[in-house]
Amino acid sequence: MRLSYRPFLLGSIALMTACSKKDDLPAVPTGPVTQQEINNWVLDSMRYFYLWNDQLPVNPNINLETGAFFTSIKNTADRFSLLYNPEDPATYANDIRSKYGIDYSIISWPQRPEGVIGVIKLVVPGSYAAAAGLKRGSYFTRINETSLTANNAATLSEQLRTTASGTLTPATIDGGAITEGVPVLLQISRVTENPVYSSALVSSYPRKTGYIFYNAFIDGYNNNLLDVFRKFKSQGIAELIIDIRYNTGGSLAAAAMLTALVAPDVTEKSTFVQYSGNNHLGSRTLDFATALSVPENADPIPFSALAAARLSLPRIFLLTGSQTVSAAELLINNLKPYTKVIQIGETTVGKDKGAIIVKDMRSPRRIPWVMQPITYRLSNANGNGNYTQGIAPQYPIDEMSRQPLLPPGDVNDPLVAKALAIINGGGRASGESAPVFRHYYDVGQQAAINSVVIIPR
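Structure for C-terminal processing protease CtpA/Prc, contains a PDZ domain, as requested:
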């Protein structure tokens, strides 16, 4: 998840667990901060908060560089814990989507001699990529003017991810002919992303069907989401398609709100999420009222304010992809106790855990590093979770099966078409029987790894 949710800020483990007598508190170190002091702070924090704290090494090498030390003590099953230094951008987990505002896949393309081609899946409005004319469905054949092949697709993409600029060479396809254009410059353009990309009434017969492309759970846009659902309710929609195929998560509060907007028979005291931690942190249950009360970066929206927008649908269609992760997976799993979920697309990432944010809050601060250690296993109101291998759809479809890619919500998009076919009582939809392209690199999967649900304290 790109954005953290109401962080719990750690002063220090020693201060939190010390005896009440002032004389018993450990002395605050003085002088220059040493590598050993930083690593001991990391280790002490992990011993208290980390989900796998009972499996931490007994005598780790505290002389390692901080990042290497953190990696050396993490559990081998841990794909998602993060450590970074806000004063050192090189320590951040960057991805192409957040840097350039673009998401793409490099897939097999037999018509091209090199055998692969780049397909742009998403361009963030207002980004440098959007201003350069790139859009969903565009093709490209080169990165930094080097022709794409199956062997270099990942390497070239990693070069783009780890530098401040680069180029894509767009291409047009006419029949079997591929024509390259002028290279397009990409530069870092961090923009505020409105996660509600589009919403529409996509079908009126036999049942009014709404569609929303929702790309992140960002509390600052919760009122925009409410506006969409108020409109849906006024239109009398009976079916809803929520497109989260590229959604890499976000706020727990926003996920709770979207769940409450569509699930029938949910009250503010209904359980939204359960989470269980280590021997220090134990287990907790969060109802909808509590989850809504602690947004990350906006004023809380109480449960009562949702009434005019709630749809209370007996089933919901969720369109997913291989980068759907974190709070987006929480939505899928935690809707299931309350309504029927019909999932179409690809298996999700499999992040069924949450984290807290750990900082040194002493004044003056000695440790500049920030941690997001995996802390809790997440489950729904029925106690079901454990989707580490991802959540598989009932109807697996690769969106790349139909080229070129269509705008979000287009009724001929293979995922949308399948949902409408089910609603209309039809059979196989376009794209279900089409050949599946081999994926050599997916930008969104790197963004998904950097995402984590932040648990309130």
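Residues 1-23 have pLDDT under 50 and may be disordered.
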